[in-house]
């Protein structure tokens, strides 16, 4: 079979959702990828490695091969029997799969949470309080003449963010790096900071203080201290001047802001700073979302329940109280008695108590890969990669919806998340109605 080259492929790794990849397919395998960053090439060329391709179910202490039908039947019965099932993950799958997951949690009276609760949860709480001024990445590319990365290191975490959307992109009104100023605020001189026109190094866990001082300087208030967060007042005032004098500014922030002391209060301070700046110039703010569809997990859950994550259906209606109804808190308190994990690896990154409880309850995982979570699972349902082996819609970090493509077939017999979850929902309904 001859090689086929597919252009404008959407990457399904980080929240940038770059849609300019060129993929060469030979004999139903991806053999070459152009325009991708190292993270994307690694996934595109390595998607066949460390796969789960056979449904497995634990007998005693050993995982044994089974069929999808049998595994789905046992999963349905396990979830129905549970008083507080947890449905967690969702940021590496499609909007369509997430919507079925929400239906499943509602049908079985469980908890529905996504990985936001361990990354940008504080961002969402901050937005609830203050609101946000946002726009698309396209507008930033064409118009922004000043870009700030605060607590974020895109050179490593979102490698094409700067070249596609910000300081190094070619926009309509801003053509090159020399048309834009780059400011980096971080606790250490990261590789992104090395490219900055201005680098502000602050003391760890003092983001809130610096953000509030900067807002005061933007407002023209006098600050009666010599330094804030280890940064001199002169430097803060100089920075405030730069922000006020830009024509279109964009503040991007990462986990360095959401997960340092203050958490959602840091985000409220950042949103308030941007509100203040909008009385003097044009400014927008945007979180640097990590997984390619974590934004979709928030959006789809919000359309269907009114809440973006940590949704509790145990009372028969959706309830939302992050810190109480989020996965880590529920698991650390030992409150869930079964868990269905979709496209996520919580055993690798949850705190010890939460991960320990996950291993003590019936654990079912739907995932394309072998992970520490699949290895601890009672049931494993292998799935196809969204954006490589199946289609599906996703939300880019700025809220633009994109339709990913199917490039190759999944391994023989492997089903998609949508097929598995639809069959599971159907089985649950047949057993409960
Ligand atoms: S920056 Fe992110 S979305 Fe873009 S190619 Fe790299 S991993 Fe993919």
CATH architecture level-2 label of the largest domain: 3-Layer(aba) Sandwich
Which ligands occur here? Answer: iron/sulfur cluster
Fraction of residues in helix: 25-40%
Strand order of the largest sheet: 5-4-19-18-17-6-7-15-16
Strands, count? 21
* pLDDT averaged over residues: 97
Number of domains as seen in the coordinates: 2
Instruction: Characterize the main sheet.
Output: 9 strands, mixed
- For the terminal residues, how far apart are their CA atoms? 50 Å
The CATH topology of the largest domain comes to Rossmann fold
Strand residue content: 15-25%
Shape: globular
Top-tier CATH class of the largest domain = Alpha Beta
Radius of gyration: 23 Å
Q: Explain this structure to me?
A:
It is a single chain. By secondary structure, this protein is α/β, with parallel strands linked by helices. The chain folds into 2 domains: 56-119 and 292-386 and 411-432, Rossmann fold (3-Layer(aba) Sandwich); 121-287, Dimethylsulfoxide Reductase, domain 2 (3-Layer(aba) Sandwich). It contains 17 helices and 21 strands. The strands form 5 sheets. The chain has a 9-stranded mixed beta sheet, with helices on one face. A 5-stranded parallel beta sheet has the order 10-9-8-13-14. A 3-stranded antiparallel beta sheet has the order 1-2-3. The longest helix has 16 residues, at 417-432. The protein is globular, with a radius of gyration of 23 Å. The protein starts with a strand and ends with a helix. The mean pLDDT is 97. The structure holds iron/sulfur cluster (SF4). Iron/sulfur cluster (SF4) is lined by residues 11, 13-14, 16-18, 36-37, 39-40, 158-160.
């Amino acid at each position: 079979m001859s090689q086929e080259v597919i252009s404008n492929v959407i990457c399904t790794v980080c929240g940038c959702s770059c849609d300019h990849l060129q993929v060469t397919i030979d004999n139903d395998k991806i053999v070459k990828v152009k325009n991708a960053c190292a993270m994307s090439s690694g996934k595109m060329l390595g998607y066949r490695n460390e796969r789960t391709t056979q449904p497995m179910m634990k007998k005693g202490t050993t995982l044994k091969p089974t069929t999808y039908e049998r595994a789905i039947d046992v999963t349905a019965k396990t979830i129905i029997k549970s008083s507080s099932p947890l449905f967690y993950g969702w940021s590496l799958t499609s909007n369509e799969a997430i919507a079925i997951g929400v239906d499943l949690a509602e049908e079985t009276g469980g908890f529905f949470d996504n990985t936001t609760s361990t990354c940008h949860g504080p961002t969402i709480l901050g937005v609830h309080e203050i609101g946000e001024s946002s726009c698309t990445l396209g507008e930033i590319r064409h118009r922004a003449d000043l870009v700030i990365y605060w607590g974020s290191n895109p050179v490593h975490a979102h490698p094409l963010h700067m070249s596609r959307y910000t300081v190094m992109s070619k926009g309509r009104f801003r053509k090159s790096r020399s048309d834009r100023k780059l400011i980096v605020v971080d606790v250490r001189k990261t590789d992104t900071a090395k490219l900055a026109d201005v680098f502000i190094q602050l003391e760890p866990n003092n983001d809130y203080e610096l953000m509030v001082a900067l807002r005061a300087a933007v407002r023209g208030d006098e600050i009666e201290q010599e330094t804030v967060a280890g940064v001199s007042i002169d430097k803060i005032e100089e920075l405030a001047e730069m922000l006020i004098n830009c024509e279109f500014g964009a503040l991007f922030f990462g986990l360095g802001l959401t997960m340092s002391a203050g958490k959602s209060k840091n985000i409220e301070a950042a949103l308030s700073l941007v509100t203040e700046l909008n009385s003097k110039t044009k400014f927008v703010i945007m979180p640097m979302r990590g997984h390619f569809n974590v934004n979709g997990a928030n959006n789809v859950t919000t359309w269907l329940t009114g809440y973006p994550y940590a949704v509790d259906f145990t009372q028969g209606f959706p309830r939302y109280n992050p810190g109480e109804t989020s996965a880590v808190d529920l698991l650390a308190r030992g409150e869930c008695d079964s868990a269905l994990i979709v496209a996520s690896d919580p055993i690798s990154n949850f705190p010890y108590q939460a991960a320990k409880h996950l291993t003590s309850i019936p654990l079912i995982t739907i995932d394309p890969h072998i992970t520490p979570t699949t290895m601890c699972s009672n049931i494993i349902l292998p799935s196809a990669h969204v954006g490589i082996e199946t289609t599906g819609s996703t939300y880019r970090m700025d809220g633009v919806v994109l339709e990913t493509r199917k490039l190759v077939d999944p391994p023989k017999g492997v089903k998609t998340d949508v097929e598995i979850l639809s069959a599971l929902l159907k089985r649950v309904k047949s057993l409960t109605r």
